[in-house]
Amino acid sequence: MRDDPTVVDLVTRARDGEKKAWDELVERYAPLVFSVCRRYRLAQPDMDDVGQSVWLRLVEHLPGLREPAALPGWIATTTQRECFRLIRTTNRVEPVDLADSPDVPEDAIAEEEVLRHERRAILRTAFSELSRRCQILLALLTQDPPTPYDEISRRLHVPIGSIGPNRARCLTKLRQTPALALLADGPDERTRR
Amino acid sequence: MADLDWNDDEQMIEALRDALASADEVPTAFVEAGKAAFSWRTIDAELAALTYDSAWDTLDALAIRSESAILRSLTFASDGWTVELELTPDAVLGQLDPPEAGTVTARGEGGKLATADIDDLGFFALRPVPTSPYRLVCTAASGTTILTGWITP
């Protein structure tokens, strides 16, 4: 796991009682808690329960957190445990199908979600470092479904023929942003485990 | 998670779509509830962990138990303290051991849900029974505060 100085700083400040630092931690990692809950197909009220337990555990856990850099992993694993606990208490039976399913090893899910969360965060940061023009073009192209070229041409006042090359150019710029350049020495090793 | 080739334009577009969309999918209330959890840190208490829950017993045992007034019994323990609970429809009955007078409060994520006195024999009856997850904060007259784990009704 990459040592993120921001996380270490946030944890230290939250531990000292700074509410703003805590809020930032929650904003940063709520998507991770959310995506782990989604893996267990929890309904929204159950997700809220799990979320509450995870944050309260983290509040208790903060003073004893020796390696703040390991926080994402801790959050993912704790969320997973809370999901299991909730499934067990609501059904009053062991979640056999989930726990024993051979193709869903538990720690693999937590680790996968941590990597996914990290990758999304890096990409969003990289995106925010792009020029406004590239941001608009890539935002249109990443709509679901993608905005058609003729509509992009109309909205951005550019010839249809220039959209393809601009798309490639903006993606190259995206790869060259400081956020992604940090991974330049081997993003593949990070995502391929 | 599929491997990502950072040099492939199509994969980059797909990864970016996922990253941008995921930022919007988390409900605001979910994030705000997490921020509110910070207020718990001000409670300086001994944590009592769950050591027994009748819900752990088999379904058969539960069926027998439900014929009596006691729906569920729980035991929380920390160093030197035990809190035994019986969750009845009418009240949360509790016994602090060693016995000591004091007060007990049920706290949910939004704050206090119910408060009751603990008598000289360490017994309390907390009403109304909380309907959402809560923890008990037992403050003994000697100054010790004991915080139980979460109880989900």
UniProtKB/TrEMBL annotation, chain A:
Keywords: DNA-binding, Sigma factor, Transcription, Transcription regulation
The keyword DNA-binding belongs to this UniProt entry's keyword annotation: yes
Domain RNA polymerase sigma-70 region: 25-92
GO molecular function ontology, one term from the record: sigma factor activity
Coiled-coil zones: none
Gene Ontology BP terms: DNA-templated transcription initiation
Family the UniProt entry places it in: Belongs to the sigma-70 factor family. ECF subfamily.
NCBIfam families xref list: sigma70-ECF
The protein, known as: RNA polymerase sigma factor (Sigma-70 family)
Species this protein is from: Kribbella kalugense
Automatic annotation (TrEMBL), chain B:
Protein name: Uncharacterized protein
